[in-house]
Write a structure and sequence with these properties.
407 residues; alpha/beta; Urease, subunit C, domain 1; 2 domains; four-stranded mixed beta sheet; 40% helix; 16% strand
C-alpha cells in the first residue's frame, strides 16, 4: 500500500511542480482514504485547482474540468499528505520526506534564521520541500538541569538576557551568531539559547514570537516559574508552548504552568509513579536505566492513569510520542527493520545524507549499554505507556474533542 501511495504522490509532485500549480490536476480511479474515519472511496476522483483540493467523489459524480491534467491512479491508494509531528530538519531531508508522502513537518528545534528561511522559501515555492512549522531556538536552562541530575544534550549560549535584552530580532540573531563563534564547541548558528531567570525567559519568548515561529519549545529543566513566564508571553502572541521536560517536573505541574504539549511524553511517568522512593529518585534525576527514552515507564501505576488523562483531555493537551525512536528495538520486527536500513545505507544514491545521521539507524545509543534485564523493564514500560496513550485517545473522542493540536 505504501509503494502504491508513493507512486501517486510522486506523480502528483512531478505534475504540480512542473508548472507551480498553474493548472488543474485530477487524480482518477484510485482507492481514496481521506483520514476522516469515513469508509474509503473506490474508483475516486480528486480535483485540484492550483494549491487547493476543489472536489472529491467517485468517477461519474464529479465533473472533470476541461484541459485538466489527469493522473491515472487505478490500482493505487490515494492519501492526504502526511504530517511528521517531530523533526529536526536538515538540508538533505526534503526530497526523501516528499517521496514518502510527508508534505508537512513540525520542526521542534533548529537554528532560527536558517529554519525560517527554509520555511519561507518553501512557502514562496523557491525551495522544494514539505511545509515547515518551526519552533526555532529551543529555550533551555541547563544549569537547572545539571542541578536536577539531568543530561545536557545540546550546547547552548548562556546568560542570554545580558546580551539580547531589549534588542530587535535581527540584532539578537547577529549577537547570538557572534557569541557562538567566540565559544569553541558551539555551532555557528546555535539551536539552543539558555535562560537564567524569568525575565530572560520572557525576553527570548518575545523574540521568537516576533520571528514568526509556529510555537514555542522548551528543552530541559526550565523551572516552573520560567515555564509560567514563557506561557504567559507566548499567549500574548497566540502561540502554544511545547515542553521537553526534565528535572522532575511532572505533566500536571507543567500543564498548570501553561504548557500545551508534552514532547516525548515527558512528565507522564513522573505523574503516575506511586512508589515514594522511586518517585523521589525520579524527581531528583537520579533514577535512570540505560540512557534512552522511556527508562522509568515500567514503574508507572495504571491506577493513576484515569485522573491524569481526564485532566489532560479537559485541558486539550497535545501528547507527542517518540516510540519510533525510543521503542524501535523492542519491536518483534526489529531485525527485519535493521536489515532494511543496512540496504538503505548501501544505496549509493543516498550518499548525500550526513554521515553522522545513519549511525543511529542501526543501533540506538541507549542499546549499547543495556543489559537483557534492562531491556525487559523497557518492554514493560513501553506496554504501560501504550496503554496510557490508548486510554488518552479513547477519552478524547468520548469528549468529542478529537486530537489536540500543537499548531
Amino acid at each position: 500500500m505504501l509503494k502504491r501511495f508513493v507512486e501517486v504522490a510522486i506523480s502528483l509532485i512531478i505534475a504540480a511542480t512542473g508548472n507551480l500549480f498553474a493548472q488543474t490536476i485530477v487524480i482518477e480511479g484510485g482507492l481514496l482514504v481521506d483520514a476522516t474515519g469515513r469508509p474509503p472511496i473506490s474508483n475516486s476522483v480528486v480535483v485540484i485547482e492550483r494549491d487547493r483540493i476543489k472536489a472529491v467523489g467517485q468517477v461519474g459524480s464529479i465533473s472533470i474540468p476541461a484541459g485538466a491534467q489527469v493522473i491515472n491512479a487505478r490500482g493505487k491508494t490515494v492519501l492526504p499528505g502526511l504530517f511528521d509531528s517531530h523533526i529536526h530538519y536538515w538540508d538533505w531531508m526534503p526530497e526523501l520526506l516528499i517521496a514518502h508522502g510527508i508534505t508537512s513537518v513540525i520542526d521542534t528545534g533548529n537554528r532560527l534564521e536558517w529554519i525560517i528561511a527554509q520555511r519561507d522559501g518553501i512557502n514562496s515555492r523557491k525551495i522544494f520541500g514539505p511545509r515547515i512549522f518551526p519552533a526555532g531556538w529551543l529555550i533551555a536552562n541547563h544549569e537547572q538541569e545539571e542541578r536536577a541530575g539531568g543530561y545536557v544534550r545540546r550546547p547552548g549560549i548562556k546568560n542570554l538576557s545580558e546580551h539580547v535584552k531589549g534588542k530587535t530580532l535581527q540584532e539578537a540573531i547577529e549577537i547570538t551568531r557572534l557569541l557562538a563563534l567566540s565559544n569553541p564547541g558551539l555551532p555557528n548558528m546555535p539551536e539552543v539559547l539558555e535562560v537564567e531567570d524569568v525575565d530572560s525567559a520572557r525576553e527570548l519568548t518575545r523574540l521568537l514570537a516576533e520571528s514568526g515561529v509556529a510555537f514555542i519549545k522548551t528543552h530541559g529543566a526550565v523551572s516552573l516559574e520560567q515555564l509560567k513566564a514563557i506561557a504567559e508571553e507566548a499567549d500574548k502572541f497566540g502561540l502554544r508552548v511545547a515542553s521537553h521536560l526534565d528535572g522532575g517536573i511532572d505533566a500536571r505541574e507543567a500543564v498548570e504552568a501553561g504548557v500545551d504539549a508534552l514532547i516525548h511524553l515527558r512528565g507522564i511517568a513522573e505523574a503516575t509513579v506511586s512508589d515514594p522512593k522511586l518517585l523521589a529518585e525520579l524527581k531528583a534525576g537520579k533514577f535512570r536505566l540505560g540512557t534512552g527514552g522511556g527508562v522509568y515507564h515500567y514503574a508507572m501505576d495504571p491506577a493513576k492513569f484515569p485522573p491524569l488523562i481526564e485532566f489532560l483531555v479537559k485541558r486539550n493537551i497535545f501528547l507527542q510520542t517518540d516510540f519510533v525512536y525510543s521503542a524501535q528495538a523492542l519491536y518483534k520486527q526489529w531485525e527485519s527493520f535493521k536489515a532494511e536500513r543496512i540496504r538503505l545505507l548501501e544505496n549509493k544514491n543516498l550518499g548525500y545524507i550526513a554521515p553522522s545521521d545513519p549511525v543511529g539507524w542501526l543501533n540506538p545509543a541507549w542499546m549499547l549499554s543495556e543489559t537483557p534485564a534492562d531491556k525487559e523493564l523497557r518492554i514493560q514500560g513501553y506496554q504501560k505507556m501504550m496503554r496510557f496513550i490508548k486510554e488518552f485517545v479513547a477519552l478524547q473522542f468520548v469528549h468529542s474533542s478529537g486530537i489536540a493540536e500543537l499548531i
